[in-house]
Structures are given as C-alpha cells and as structure tokens.
Amino acid sequence: MAFSSVLFLFGFLPLVLGFYYLVPDRFRNAVALVASLAFYAWGAPWFVLVLILSSWLDYVLAGRIRSSADSTESKRLLALAVGLNLAMLVYCKYMNFFVEQANTIAAAVGLEPFGWTSIVLPIGISFFTFQKISYLVDVYRRQSQPAASFGAYLLYVVLFPQLIAGPIVRYHDVASQIRKRSYSDEQFLIGTWRFTIGLAKKVLIADTLAVVADAAFGPTAETAVDPMQLSCAVAWLAAVSYAMQLYFDFSGYSDMAIGLGKMLGFDFLENFNQPYISKSVTEFWRRWHISLSNWMREYLYVPLGGNRVPRWRLYANLWIVFLLSGFWHGASWNFLIWGAIHGGILTAERLTATSRLPSWPTALAILRTFCLVLVAWVFFRAWDLTQAVQFLGVMACGSAAASVTVDELMTPHIAFVLVVAVVLSFSPLFSRSYYYLDNWAIGPKSRAAGLRLAVRYAFSLALLIVSATALMSSRFHPFIYFRF
C-alpha cells in the first residue's frame, strides 16, 4: 500500500488517525502497532510473520546483551543478533544474484547450472534491517535502554510512516518518543502540510518525469530500450529527467513519512537538504539520503576507524562504505559500480582537499558536481551494465542510428514540469525552510501570522485536491525506493 494511492489517502489513513486520536493516550502505541502490521501485511502477508519472529529474537538477545556482565559474552551475543539480521537480508535480497553469478561461471566451465527458485524480495527489508541493527548496537553501546516491552520494540521496527523506504530511524533518536510523546494541533497541522508537499512532489513532478526516463531506459528489464536508438540530446534529457524524478520521488516519500510521523506525535530527522546545490560530492552526501549517510558513518565508517587511521586506511574505509552502500541499494553490478564511483570521487576530493589548486566558482562547482552525480545515476537507473555503458556512450558521442528524438518525448506539460523541478532543485529561494514551516508556531500569535497560516493551508488543501485528481487520472507509479 503506497502513500500515494487512493486507498491509503482516503481509506487507511483517515481510519487510523480516527482511531488513534479517539483512544486514550496510553493505547495509542497499540493502535499504531496494529495499523503498522496491517499496513505491511497488505503487501507481504506471510513475511510479516517472519518480521515479527525476527524482531522477537532481537528483543530477547538485546535484553541478554544488556544484562550480561561479561563484555566478551555481550560481543558474542551482539555478533549473533546482527548476524541473524544480516543473514535474513542476504538470503532474501542477494541469493538470487549470487546464484545467477554462480550459474554464469558454471556455464563458462561446462558445468550444470544450480537449481534455484527465485526469491521475491520482501518490501522494505533493507530499511528495517538497518533499524534493527541500530537498536542492537545502541543497546550494546549503552546509548539506549532496551525497549520497555516487545510491543514497544516492534512498534519501532514496523512504524508504518517510515517502514517501507525510510528515513532510516536510529533507535536512540526515537526511543524516548516511543515511551512518551506530546501532541498538539500545531504539530498535526505541520505534519499535514509536510505530507501534502511530499504527495505533490511525487505525483505532480516525479511521476510526470518518469515518462521520459521510462521511454529512454525502458519501464522494465524485459522491455529495456537499446540506447543506440537515442540521440545525444535525448540521452541527456532522460538522464536529467531521471535525476529529477529520483530526487522528487524519494524526497517526496521522506516528506510524507516525516509528515505522517508528526501527525502521530513523532519527530523524524530530515532526509534531504537540496542535494543538487552541492559544490562537491562530499557535500552531496551530507544533503542526500541523510539518514543512510548518518547510519553508515555511525555504524560502519566510525567502527572501521573513521578518520583516526592512516591515510591509506581512511581511503579504504571510504571505498568499503560506498561499495556496501551501493550493494545495499540493489543486488547487481550496476549498484556496485555506482557505489565505487562515489567512493572514488570522495577519495579524489580528499586527496585534493589540501592541494593549492584554485577553487572553482560556486556555479561551476555545482554544475561539475551535478554532472558527476548524473553519470553515476545512469548506472543506478540502467537495467544492466551493457545498457549503462552504451547510454553513457550516447551521452558523450551520440548515435548514428538514433531514431528517438526530443520532440517525441518532450510535451509542453513535461517541459513545464522539468523546468519547475530544476528551479526547485537549484534555486536557494526554495530551500527546506521555505516550505517546512519551521517557525510558524513559534512566538506570539498575531493576525498576520494567522493569515499566513490560513494561506499556507489553503495551498496545502489545493495541492491535495490536485494530486488526488492526478492520481485518479493517471497510471500508478510505485515509489522508486520500494525496489530496495
């Protein structure tokens, strides 16, 4: 069940919020838990039982980790608990890939292929696995107390606003909110505004630009497009359209998740901060998918030694982090190369940070960073390595056999949406603070403040109506990060 579906908007969400605020405060965790399990079971009715069982094992092992007075035993229990979670992730997400590679090697040496039934990827497993590991490590490090009950821990794992595609919520960021949180009309209204902004970003911008990206790459692996059919201009148009589609799709989901959290009394950390205005790829990763960057730094990069190691180890750590980040996104060589590209660029930026080379002007630095990110996005979007390499070749040199032209893809509506997306992505006038309403509830109330509030929420209602209308009259596009 997607946030951008009619069923969620006009069925599930009003029903859940109605029950949530009708019951006394002490029962709201229970309502949120039941709603979250039902939300996940809608798309994965059998795997929800596996998720509950694995969460129960986490809860039991975390309790033993905390109560153990022997540090060696605690480490072994932590390794067991983290290992069980990673084993489930590897089996469900990567075994198809490993068997495929093994069969390729077997065919090359004349051996019989391995018999294997493909596994259907459980939705959201990459996200909730990282959250489960966060809980175990936080308890081991004594950054947080173990959850007061299994129900409280399970709520942390399956809370529906962020269950499927994040933001990745670290346990120590929300542990106190699970125990007790405050509610206010202002917070609920901020959540409503934020949710409708995310819905509009997804439905009105991302889904429109998906038409161009799908036409150039192919909507599925089985219908992948031969890049040699594209002109150089079409390839660049598709790459830019996909970059905008991905940003507005994923940041839209994050806005909706954060907004839903506020409606329920939770405050989730931000996940995006205008990443395409970054002047370096290092800065880009401080602004893009912030929750993943924070998780990787806290639970992988720092334990590997972080910056407190010899220079060669630091660069190796960067590569390890980004190779694993790429593989976390998907079980294919494309994602590994995408991660390797980012790891390589970050290493190069570290190497040149202390050089006396003149700095680039801001506009050129932003353009350079965007182009580097754009090249990497081609591997992220392409269905296989061959398509990615050929696509980049067409972007660089064009194609003598091109048959698809810009005029065939660029309708006036798509052109308008693309311009809006670029302006929103690159203009400092549309930074996060422009539409997050950070300060509207702070300070004394006034007639002017009330008028601004009324205008903003009239605009929010208009966005909801327009987005819902677009949903009902167009083909459904799932969120891109549902694949991960």
Layout: helices, strands, pairs:
Layout: H1 6-22, H2 28-43, H3 47-67, H4 71-108, H5 125-140, H6 150-158, H7 171-179, H8 185-217, H9 232-263, H10 281-287, H11 290-301, H12 311-329, H13 333-353, H14 362-381, H15 385-397, H16 406-409, H17 412-426, H18 432-436, H19 447-472
Helix pairs in contact: 1-2, 2-6, 3-4, 3-5, 3-6, 4-5, 8-9, 8-17, 8-19, 9-14, 9-15, 11-12, 12-13, 13-14, 14-15
Helix content percent band: 55-70%
Rg, alpha carbons: 23 Å
What class do helices, strands and sheet pairing give? mainly alpha
How many distinct helices?
19
Low-confidence stretches: 433-438, 440-444
Q: What does this protein structure show overall?
A:
It is a single chain. The protein has helices at 6-22, 28-43, 47-67, 71-108, 125-140, 150-158, 171-179, 185-217, 232-263, 281-287, 290-301, 311-329, 333-353, 362-381, 385-397, 406-409, 412-426, 432-436, 447-472. It has 19 helices and no strands. Helix 2 (28-43) crosses helix 6 and helix 9 (232-263) packs across helix 14. With 484 residues, the protein is an all-alpha fold. Helix content is 69%, strand content 0%.
